[in-house]
Design brief:
Number of strands: 9
Shape: globular
Distance between the termini: 53 Å
Strand order of the largest sheet: 6-5-9-7-8
Number of helices: 18
Strand content: 5-15%
Helix content: 40-55%
CATH superfamily of the largest domain: NADH-ubiquinone oxidoreductase 51kDa subunit
């Protein structure tokens, strides 16, 4: 990322540092070659799902239904995630260039930045950047005199967490109620206005110009071991130096926490961290020394890296309360379309704050496990499937706190 380079949020400053050279190269190379390079780079989606970007673009390109669209998911609503805002505020033209290249590769002639409602300053900045790009011939009916047409628009969300889910986002973009969509069909064939659509995260699109200019092998080499590329991590909580960190995929978690971020606050020790904001639940101190920041490792412990939000909890925190607050958030943000999520998040919140009937530990755990399994098996979207990670990880890593809480309620 280039967020530390001064002047990158102006067109002149961006071009002075090689900006839009990747677009020029892509126009010469053609759509097929662009998709090949992105595929060879092994770039996976940086918004949470980790789907291969080249494969997604190829699927959209192979559809012969028009008009196609590129949609940037900039609805950064996951608690503990703030890296996309930094990219848009300090390096907005990388996003714009990445979206134009995505349009060229897939045959899309229009793009939409679906921007989080709570980012009004970013909206003003992006509007100015789009106007500058269009005036310079980088957007419009004849991009850089090539005959390629691409128009880019900003659409603001209304503050709903559920709109981070791509089906809900697309419904919102169409002016509909933001309920998740049933899959299949997938957006690559039936997306915005039921036409082929590539939905990509801000970070994913911002890295595209670098891959085009420096090559697939260069990007692969940035990771550690067998892993390709880098990932932006938003680190917050009980840590000395919170902030955004660009890490090589595969970096040991303890290196990030202790060597880069300075470790826990004085006199404290790290009790747990979250993964994927809240969606990945908690990982306890028992395993933190063995974790590397890559999906295979983290998934082996029942979580996932997701959008890259890591919150740190030191030993002064009550993890039962932390779990309750997380579940209350999910209950508040559930869209209500499917009852397993709508009711399940409410029931789990009750069991975490003691509102339910008083139960011993075994009975409490039995009820919670039943709710967890029902939600994971039958929820309509990722919110209902992810929320149980909170209670599952609480019971796995902090059984003594669960036992103490249930005993105090009996």
């Amino acid at each position: 990322s280039n967020i530390r380079k001064k002047g990158h949020n102006t067109l002149e400053g961006y071009q002075d540092n090689g900006g839009f050279k990747a677009l020029e190269s892509s126009l010469k190379a053609g759509p097929t070659r662009v998709i090949e390079v992105v595929t060879e780079s092994k770039l996976a989606g940086r918004g949470g799902a980790g789907f291969p970007t080249g494969l997604k673009w190829k699927a959209v390109a192979e559809c012969d239904r028009h008009p196609k669209s590129i949609v940037c998911n900039a609805d950064e609503g996951e608690p503990g995630c703030f890296k996309d805002r930094a990219l848009m505020d300090y390096d907005p033209f990388s996003l714009i260039e990445g979206m134009i290249i995505a349009g060229l590769a897939t045959g899309a002639q229009r793009g939409f930045i679906y921007l989080r409602y709570e980012y009004p300053e970013t909206n003003i900045l992006l509007e100015r950047c789009l106007a500058e790009a269009e005036e310079a011939g980088l957007l419009g009916n004849n991009v850089l005199g090539s005959g390629f047409k691409f128009h880019l628009y900003i659409r603001r969300g209304a503050g709903a967490y559920i709109c981070g889910e791509e089906g809900s986002l697309l419904n919102s973009l169409e002016g509909k109620h933001p309920f998740p969509r049933n899959k299949p069909p997938f957006p690559v064939t039936h997306g915005f206005e039921d036409k082929p659509t590539a939905v990509n995260n801000v970070e994913t699109l911002c890295v595209i110009p670098h891959i085009i200019i420096k090559g697939a092998e260069w990007y692969q080499s940035l990771g550690m071991g067998e892993h390709a590329g880098t990932k932006l991590i938003s680190l917050s909580g009980d840590i000395k130096q919170p902030g955004n960190y660009e890490i090589p995929i595969g970096l040991p978690l303890k290196t990030l926490l202790y060597d880069w971020a300075g470790g826990p606050l004085d006199g404290r020790s790290i009790q747990a961290v979250t993964m994927a904001g809240l969606s990945g639940g908690f990982l306890g101190h028992q395993i933190l020394d063995d974790l590397t920041l890559d999906d295979p490792c983290i998934r082996s412990h029942g979580s996932f890296l997701g959008a890259g939000g890591i919150m740190v909890f030191d030993d002064s925190r009550n993890m039962m309360k932390a779990a309750h607050d997380a579940m209350a958030f999910f209950a508040h943000e559930s869209c209500g379309k499917c009852f397993p999520c709508r009711i399940g998040t409410q029931r789990l919140t009750e069991r975490l704050n003691g509102d339910a009937k008083k139960l011993d530990l075994a009975a409490w755990a039995h009820e919670v496990v039943d709710i967890n399994e029902a939600m994971k098996a039958t929820s309509a979207c990722g919110l209902g499937m992810a929320a149980p990670h909170v209670t599952e990880s609480l019971m796995k890593y902090f059984p003594e706190q669960v036992e103490a809480a249930t005993q105090s309620n009996s």
